Request: fold
Amino acid sequence: MEHPLSAISDHGSAPGIPRVLLGAERVTVDYPGVRALDGVSIDFRAGEIHAIVGENGAGKSTLMKVLSGALRPTAGSLRRDGRPTVFNKPADAMRAGIAMVHQELHLVPTLDVAENVCLGREPTRLFAVAVDRVRQRARARELLTMLGSDLDLSRAAGTLSIADAQFVEIAKCLASNARVLIFDEPTAVLGEREAARLLALLRRLRDEGRAILFISHHLDEIVEVADRVSVLRDGKLVQTFARSLDGLLCDAAGVGVNESRIATAMVGRELGSIYPAKGSALSTEPMLELVGFGARGRSRAISLAVKPGEIVGIAGLVGSGRTETAEAIIGLRSREGSVRVAGREVAFANPRAAMFAGVAYVSEDRKGRGLHTSLSSITNMTLPSLDTHARLAGLRIDSAGERAVTARWIGEFAIRCARPALPISSLSGGNQQKFALARWLETAPKVLIIDEPTRGVDVGAKGEIYRIIAQLASKGLACVVVSSDLPELIGLAHRVAVMREGRMVGELSREKLAAKDCEERIVRLASGLSEVTQEGAAA
Amino acid sequence: MNATHGSHSVQRFLEKWGVVVAFVLLFAASFWKQGFDFLNAENFRAMLNSNSAVGILAVGMTLVIVSGGIDLSVGSIVVLAAALGTTTMNALIGAEYSELNAVLIGGGVTVLGGLAAGCINGSLIVFGRIAPFIATLGGLAAFRSIALAIAEAGEIRSQSSSYFAVLGRGGIPLAFESANAGETPVYSGLLNSAGKPLTLTYSILIFIAIAIMAQWLLSASRFGRHLVAVGANETAARYAGIAVGWVRLRAYAIMGLLAGLTGLMQSSRMNSVSTSGLGVSNELDAIAAVVIGGTSLRGGFGRVWGTVIGVLILGMITNILTISGVSPYWQGAVKGAVIVLAVLVQRGSRD
Reply:
């Protein structure tokens, strides 16, 4: 059965409605006890960037799993090029030209760039026995050039930055002739500049007539690039916005929409400012003090003082040494210079020693380092503070006490977790993040270093996490917030230090953060466009 | 959809309880084959007794595997510890020590020798940062080689005439003399085929006690929690403030201690140590039992009770094949098939 629209060319300039490359009709997915998707009908057209937004748990990941063949819907059907189709496994979807660029990149670290791009479809010679390396490199070069990247083809994938690895991953999808590309929060792991480069790439892929499915928590990006925006809430498609002829994103009535309007549609209620009021330092004596500090080989000469009650932000591009510096403080990396906690010189050998001294670090990498995804919420919650539940010299763990503590934090942070004994991976990103934070608060820290506090967290939960951090600070905790999300730093932090290439290149005072041009200032500092000394920025 | 849901839940069930199902099936098969002969207490005791040594190793191996490691050297630790202990004991007896003291010191040397070997393994892995497979592969070769050198590849015969064999051969009688009717005593309780009281050997009791302690350690103690956390994700465990190296070191130390204890039990049972025969391929039997029991070789999940059933399954297979007159050459093929089948059934959704 030929779809009436399939005759139209899928190269952008075709008149009328662009061709629908992939469609879902009344797709419903039931998990035991939960309806994750509820009769969603949606289509993806050639030459269009279609953004899917929604809070965590709204059904975005489930929809993506259905579209990429990882999950069969309970009811409803898919159409590829107008024909009904069934994907039993991801390979079926891939064969139909649908490729997913995962949040976690799937490159083979020991193979080089060219080998990764052509992985699984290597050009061969000698009766398909040998890989034709010359053609392989040519093909990889061709695809990367198309993406506007001039990466060295011989570099091992394991040595690439996340941003470059993402380009290789996209080239890999193109090598399989994908017509529909699904991007799952591609900018979440990127800094501002890399993110802008990626958005430009999305546009370019769209202009070539591909259908782009784009998922992001960054609503500003969505307003910037999406041609259509579909909002999911509680498994239902609640609203669709489309770009009008004059380039504005509009609702069905033709009224222009902005980020806050999209956020309102996602949450289903009006959102106030998500940033809490800023407090002030409770003491003049710094709780955490870095003097000429650095993570060996990654950063140096960093001086910073954080007083009780203060929230100090650290900005910088990905790779500027922010995370490495934080890891060096708690003893995960070799360090230089000195660290003082409450005026006392310390040199932690490992996170355990840091914990005993009251310094806690919440990792940016929630899945790989911050939490044990295969273990239960309770186990994750009590892991750092397990000693308080140990009885009989550790031979017994007071599991009733563990459950009580977990329940207390679930109440305190409004964590949506019906069954804490299940693996924590069953929770949404926001709820996992609250546990990642709560488990360290249970160790009663004096200094809290939070790396990317809201990565992969939806709008509603973001606001709650900000409120929690502000509240902790008001009770005398010294907080360091490392983030790539500038509005977040500006809205939350009392001061923001900016890092570039392992050095601290400037600091923005509270007054500077209140100024209109502060975001631009930070970007200029972080990218090296303006060279400002610490004194200069503070002045 | 219902059908796939159904098969899904069957798979989930087998993933968790497959080992119990297999045990019940095997039990039924044994019963069908041998009738009430199979339920014979003596037959059962013999099976348990002959498998308790590998059973203890398998229990220790469960802890190591949960921590994300492996120990290929356990069979060699068994023979090295036994050789060291028996040699020490013989030397002391030769030096006119009382036999009891010599046996106690020799036994202590055996157990502590095992502990020391386990600590060497753990140190190489933790401080030397050598992959567990490689470090213990080295131990597999080296520990036995030392034992062979001590005895010039021969047998070390115990010079103890009475005390030494008590641990390996003795036990608690399961029948007592109810009436003394002159020449032939009358017993009530469980008897063996010769009409004498059946004994529950110390080997079996030690195996049971260690299995219970290890299950407790794994599921209820702080150390067990740390083992699981380290095995599930070592990096995340380090970030959570767990002393990862210390946790792993202790797993190998416990494994070594248990291998030493096994060496003591085995040498006591034989009243000698065959340096070329004792403990050979024990590590593979232990790993097989752990795998059949449903513990993930990737670490981060495990259960001692599953391992115990795994040991019993392997023991029952040997038992049923032997009684049915199947050539011992074929027994390896059947065991191999069972191991692979166990992994197939249990791999399930954890992938």
